[in-house]
Fold:
Amino acid sequence: MKMEMATYYSLSAAVLLLVISGTTTTLVTATDHIVGANRGWNPGINYTLWANNNTFYVGDLISFRYQKTQYNVFEVNQTGYDNCTIDSAVGNWSSGKDFIPLNKAKRYYFICGNGQCFNGMKVSVVVHHLPSPPKAAVAAEHSPTKSASPPSVLLDWGLCSLMVSIVLVRFELNWI
Structure:
C-alpha cells in the first residue's frame, strides 16, 4: 500500500508539473521579426515602412536574411545610421542568417556595411518594454469577487486547476 501511495503522489506531482509548465510556456512568447519579410535584406526596399508595420518588444529577435557573400549587418548608433558609416559599430554579423536579440527597450540602428546602406539597406527599430498585465487582471487578483469575464491569463490558470483536479480524482479512484 505504501508503494502504491508513493507512486500515486509521484505520478500526481509529475502530471501537475506538466500541466502547469504547459500552461505557463504559452503565456510569454518572443517574436522573430524577419527584416524585409519575404524580400529579406536587399537594396531598394523601404525598411522604414517595414519597421513601422511591426511592434518590437524586449526579448524579441530581429533576423536578417541575405546572401552572405554580398551583404552584412552592422549595429551602429544614430550618427552611423544617418551617415552610413560603421565607425560607431557595436556589433556586426555576416552569416546570411543573423538572429539578433533585442534585449533592451531602446532604438536600435542597423546598416549594411559594404556601401549598400546608401541604397536603402538600413533599418531602425524601437523596442518597447513588455506590456503590463491588463488592469482588470491585477484588480481581479486583489478583489474579493472576480469579474464575470476574467482575462485570458486567469482563464489559463483556472483551466489548469480544473485539469489537475480531474487528473487527481481520476487517479485516486483507480487506486481504491
About this structure: The longest strand covers residues 122-128. Helices lie at 2-24, 47-52, 78-83, 135-142, 152-175. The chain has a mean pLDDT of 76.
